[in-house]
Design brief:
Elements (H helix, E strand, L loop, with lengths): L15 H4 L6 E7 L5 H11 L5 H5 L2 E2 L2 E2 L9 H6 L6 E6 L4 E6 L7 H8 L4 E7 L14 H12 L4 E7 L7 H19 L5 E4 L23 H7 L12 E3 L2 E4 L11 E6 L4 E2 L4 E5 L4 E8 L8 E2 L3 E6 L10 E4 L26 E10 L5 E2 L3 E6 L2 E14 L6 E3 L2 E2 L4 E12 L12 E6 L5 E7 L1
Length: 457
């Protein structure tokens, strides 16, 4: 764990203009346990970075004092109960960078909301409330939700994780509490295999070490939380992989008289690799081969489009492609026979993204009913829906000990290893290799509720 002021410095080397465009904006979420101060922290970031107008501040007064949490808790139920229920997004900018903040709820009941926010984030700030811990104990135990959110952030491949130890101003010995809590966080991260970018002691209420430094407090001399965030890298897109493109929408312009290429545009977001004119592709599941004739960006300008970017693809000929299909890199050609008199079978071409019906997965379960073997769900992969049956629950993860425990079911908000069997094969890949191709969601066939987040091994 590092708290130096050179965090990810080499990963964020861009010019002044590039740092202020939407591409370099850092998308991060705040998460952690209930009442750890997530909404207050975001309010402090907005106020101290001068991103809130005076009339807006006047509208979040309680008993003559500014309630920073109200800057993000906008639902009436949130203001009445003093909790965060849904993810609230806020935007602000400094001279160095633009930011998009997602305020995720801390209640275990709303874990699915937190997972939704984390799935598209570049970084996560996990808050730790010092007043809730046995901070005098060097071997103190972290709160279950702190562990759960940290593990989910790690599983979802959020590129950067930062711990912010909050409310140290409310304990008797801030320096001792900081030392013990920092040690507990470091031990937990090492045991879980989580890389932590920084750990910062903060007081969201008073603003210490959030935007402005509070010199020497807790014996900490590192950067403020905002300085850490300004230097974090964006999540790198999977551009080095073979091209893969889930079709979201088919646009027809059959009235065109140009017959030199297909007369439909297939729109979506590139999942992996880069698409450019001349790219040889194969349609999944039909298996038809084609060549990319044109690639359009979001403004319909012809150009090559890398992973993570929306695009429209026009093929060199008319091919039956529908929403939910995939446009994948063409299979690698098989080697030619050694001689003309060699009657051995010609090896089959190797697909760039092999399809499979059986998947070994890690599932973060979010439904109220437990996940058990034999249940059937709808699975969404890219924009393709297929039926998925739970073959077996292999084990569940004990978030306190990080041990893999034998299990026959996954209870709400549990994380475990599950074997799935699909009704149809899909071009799934390991989530650690490709985020889009390696992720699915499970949806209950009766209630249509999102039941689980699936990461392919």
């Amino acid at each position: 764990m590092t708290t130096t002021n050179s965090i990810a410095a080499n990963a964020y080397q861009t010019g002044g203009e590039a740092q202020n465009d939407h591409v370099s904006a850092l998308k991060f979420i705040t998460c952690g346990s209930v009442d750890d101060g997530k909404s207050t922290l975001i309010g402090r970031l907005l106020v101290d970075s001068k991103a809130v107008l005076q009339d807006h501040l006047a509208g979040v007064q309680r008993q003559g004092e500014t309630d920073l949490a109200l800057l993000t808790d906008g639902l009436s139920a949130e203001r009445e109960q003093g909790i965060t229920i849904d993810v609230a997004y806020r935007y602000f900018a400094t001279e160095e960078r633009k930011f998009i903040i997602g305020d995720a709820p801390g209640h275990e009941q709303y874990t699915r909301n937190m997972v939704t926010a984390a799935s598209s984030a570049d970084a996560a700030v996990v808050l730790v409330d010092a007043t809730k811990l046995d901070w005098k104990n060097p071997s103190l135990a972290l709160l279950p939700q702190t562990r759960r959110h940290s593990l989910l952030v790690h599983l979802l491949r959020v590129h950067s994780l930062v711990f912010a130890v909050n409310k140290l101003d409310a304990v008797e010995d801030p320096a001792l509490a900081w030392k013990h809590i920092q040690g507990a966080l470091q031990a937990f991260a090492q045991a879980a295999g989580i890389t932590v970018r920084a750990t910062v002691p903060v007081s969201a209420l008073k603003g210490w070490n959030v935007v402005d430094a509070h010199a020497g407090w807790c014996g900490y001399t590192g950067p403020t939380l905002l300085q850490v965030l300004e230097e974090l890298p964006n999540t790198p897109a999977d551009t080095a992989l073979a091209p893969a493109f889930p079709v979201q929408w088919v646009e027809k312009f059959s009235s065109s008289s140009d017959t030199s290429q297909g007369r439909r545009v297939f729109w979506g977001r590139v999942a992996a690799g880069t698409f450019a004119p001349g790219t040889a592709v194969q349609i999944f599941p039909s298996g038809q081969l084609a060549t990319v004739a044109q690639v359009l960006d979001h403004a319909r300008r012809p150009k090559y489009v890398p992973a993570g970017t929306s695009a429209g693809i026009i093929l060199d000929r008319e091919v039956d492609v529908s929403r939910g299909d995939w446009i994948l890199a063409a299979p690698t050609a098989a080697a030619a026979p050694a001689a003309d008199d060699d009657f051995g079978d010609t090896p089959a071409a190797t697909p760039a993204w092999p399809a499979s019906r059986e998947l070994q997965t890690t599932i973060a379960w979010m439904d109220d009913d437990p996940l058990v073997a034999g249940r059937v769900y709808w699975a969404l992969h890219g924009h393709r829906w297929v039926k998925a049956k739970v073959k077996a629950v292999v084990h569940k993860l004990n978030i306190n000990t990080l041990a893999e425990e034998a299990a026959t079911q996954l209870d709400p908000n549990a994380i475990g290893h599950v074997q799935l069997v699909l009704q149809e094969a899909i071009p799934a890949a390991a989530f650690g290799q490709a985020r889009v191709l390696g992720s699915l969601i499970l949806v209950d066939t009766a209630s249509h509720k999102t039941a689980g987040a699936v990461l392919v091994h």
